[in-house]
Amino acid sequence: MKILMVNKFLHPNGGSETYIFRLGAYLKEQGHQVQYFGMEHPKRCVGNRVEAYTSNMDFHGGSKLSKLTYPLKTIYSTEARKKIRQVLEDFGPDVVHLNNFNYQLTPSVILEVRKWEREVGTRCRIVFTAHDYQLVCPNHMMSNPNTHENCEKCVGGKFANCLKGSCIHGSKAKSLIGMTEAYFWKANKVYRHIDAIICCSHFMKSKMDTNPLFAGKTIALHNFINRVPWKKTEKKDYVLYFGRFSEEKGIGTLLKVCRSLPQISFVFAGTGPLAEELTSVPNIQNVGFQSGEALETLIREARFSIYPSEWYENCPFSVMESQMYGTPVLGAYIGGIPELIQPGRTGELFASADEQALREKIQYLWENPEVTRRYADNCQQIQFDTLEEYCEKLMKIYEGTM
Q: How far is residue 352's CA from residue 358's CA, in Å, rounded to a whole number?
C-alpha cells in the first residue's frame, strides 16, 4: 500500500511528529511505501521523492511583508495545493493520512487530493488523526487561555466565540483569523471529504461527534506505547509528578496541596512557566527535565505518580508510561484520563481542580502503602496497544474495514 503522511512539520517538534515518524518507519518495515508532505525546514528529516514542500511559515519571525500575507495564507494555500499535487502525481498514494495541517498547510490540500482523484480516475482514502480539538475549536484546546477555564462555546460551529474571547494567544487579531478560517471551511464543507477520523480517546470522539459531518466517521483509538519487560522495583518514599509545569496541567492546585502536606515528599520532573513557584514549597524536590533511564528510574521507584490536569487531556502518554513501569497513577477525572486508569486497581481518580479531593486522595494513598503495592502489581496486567497492534488496526482503517 502507498501511504502519504501529511503534517505541517516534518522535523522533530512534538507529539504528532513522533507519531508520524514511528508509524511511517514501521509501515515501511512491513513492506508499504511511505512518503511525507509538509513544510520545508532546515531540520526536515523525512520527505517525498519529488522534493515538493511548502515554504516554511514562521509566525514569530519573518519579514514585515510576509507577516502581512500570513492571514490569507493561513486560511487558503495555493502553494500547498500545487506542491501536494506534484507528490500525488508522482507517488499515486492509496491513502493520504492527514495529521496537523491547519494554518500552515490549510485544508486546501484536501480539495487537491479529491481533484487529483477525479482527474486520474482512482480512489484515494483520506484518513485524519486528530491530535487536538482544532476542527471544533479554533484555538485547538477547548480552553480559554485568558481565564484558564475549559470552554465549549464554539461547539456546534459557533466560532464567533473565539473572537469574543480572544482565545488564540489572547490576541483579537489572531482570534479573528482563527474564526475566519473555521467559518470559511465550514461553509465549503471541506471536511466531508475525510473518510475516517482517528480520535485518541473516547472523550475526544464525543467532542468531534458534536459536528454531524464527523459523526459516523470517528474512531476512538488510544495511542500506542512500547511494552517493556515487567520488573518489580523497590519503591521509595516520594510521590512523583513528571511533565510540564503549567497552569492547565493543574500545577497551581497541586502546589497548594503539597504545601498542606509537609509530611509527604514530592519529586517534580519537568520544565515550564511555573518552575520558579516550586522553590517556595520545601517538601518539593525539582529535578528538572528528565528522560531515558533517569526518568524510568524516577517513575519505577515512586510510590505513585500524580496527573492533576485541568484541561481536556486526550491520551496523555505520562499516564500510560507510569503504569507501564509499575507505578499507579492518581489522575484527574477530565478528558481522556479516566479511560487509562482503572480506579481501585491501577490507580485512583479525583475531581479535576478540586483541591480538597486531591489532598484526600494523596493522603489515602500515602498512608496505605499496601494499597499502592497492590495497584503496582496490577499494573502488569494492563495492555495498551503496542506500535504493531496499533498498526494492525490502522491498516483496517486504511482499507475501510474498521
A: 8
